[in-house]
Write a structure and sequence with these properties.
Pfam families: LssY_C, VTT_dom. Helices cover about 50% and strands about 15% of the residues. The chain contains 14 helices and 13 strands. The protein has helices spanning about 5-15, 30-35, 45-75, 80-90, 95-100, 105-115, 120-155, 170-185, 190-220, 230-235, 265-275, 290-295, 375-385, 425-440, and strands at about 155-165, 230, 245, 255, 260, 275-280, 305, 315-320, 325-335, 345-360, 360-370, 390-395, 415-420. The strands form two sheets. Strands 1, 2, 5, 6, 8, 9, 10, 11, 12 and 13 form a ten-stranded mixed β-sheet that branches. It has a three-stranded antiparallel β-sheet with strand order 4-3-7, with no helix packed on it. A hairpin with a 2-residue loop joins β10 (about 345-360) and β11. The radius of gyration is 28 Å and the shape is elongated. About 40% of the residues are buried.
Amino acid sequence: MMSWGIPALLLATMINQLPVISVFVPTEPVYVYLGTQIPDGGWTSILACMLGAWIGAQGSFWLGRTAGARVLARMNAAPAAMHRAQSLFERRGAPFVVIAQLIWPIATLSQVLAGAWGMRPRTYVVVSGLGAVLAVSQYVAIGYVSARGLAALGLQPEEPLLVWLGPYWVSIGLALMLLVGTALILRRARHALPLRVAYAGLLALAMFVAVNLGSLTGRAQAANRVAPLPLSLACRALDETLVARTGDTPLHAAQPVNLALIGFDDPATLLRALGWLRNRTYAGDDLDAVEVLKLTFEGLPPASSILLDGIATDMAWQKARGTVPRTQLRLWPVAMPDGAPSLYLGSVGRIDAVTLRLSGRVPVLAYDLFPLIDSARNREAEAIGRAVTGARWHLVGPRAPVETESQFESDGRLAALQAPGTPGFERICAQGGPQAAGTQG
């Protein structure tokens, strides 16, 4: 299920326990993410984190025991804080070390101090093990409780909270926060309080992202409702505008079904020849946070689950690499009677902005469509028609504006593309609709 890799987890958690460099490898968001995955397993990764934290704590202890004065000088600990810590250590000893490991600003310092102030190695092996288990568990619990809370509140975007004026303001804002936070961390000796505030803010932001990613990937399997559409459902497009609505992944607004491909047995080859790029999907793939981030960085973010009458699709493409803006196409195969041409229903639209929506009571990032959605439909239908000799297309369906909770505008019609020698959409439904309805029942 995970692609973090046990060796990578061990290494990261070990480094996180070492003085000075620990601030550059914050593993707390990883623990939070793993907590969101508990219902699907993931205990091996959590145990690996606990083991890595315990091993790293031994490294800090022996650094303090062999070079305590130099290490403490390098850590720039305040004299007053050192005096209070030493008083607590002398009075409480083992409980001090355990409790200090639960508090990230002083966890690494307490491990070095235990070595520098002469705690017995055998005692430290035991108390650091208990501290490592509790330290990791507290963040795992945060992730688990947060994910269960999101599930209880519901993950359907309900109302716009904030629409970003430009598609990249989110990335720019996060980059500036990281830049300022890193600068404060590097100057930690002169700005102790701003450092703590910046580091706490960055950790909180990273854990918020971890919870959202964990909730998202934790529902990937729940969205596995990939199946062909009944022909009777497809033929309803002649009388009403079908709308595909968001599934268990809250990344996408509802959008109309506005395309039909008739007689194109291999739409993947056709779209590839036209330069379209295939997306992985939450409905068809088991994706974890690393894969989501990697694909998004490569400009091919996974396609969220949108459902047509409760049925998802794993057939998704985008016109070019990029995250926002981009033109995206979804296709649902239709179950056809024997001897009938192949039929695919599709939804094409342009993702134009990133929106912060309310998921229950929690803000989550989501994609918004370009409002004038018919222009994308007509443009892509024309391009596919030109690419196939003898193909033609025309608009079918009701001439009525779509009224939904989404913010797109559409005439409600469907562009039907026919391969050479195939019947029209209306004829297929007239001849096969009732038969298909009987076989599907």
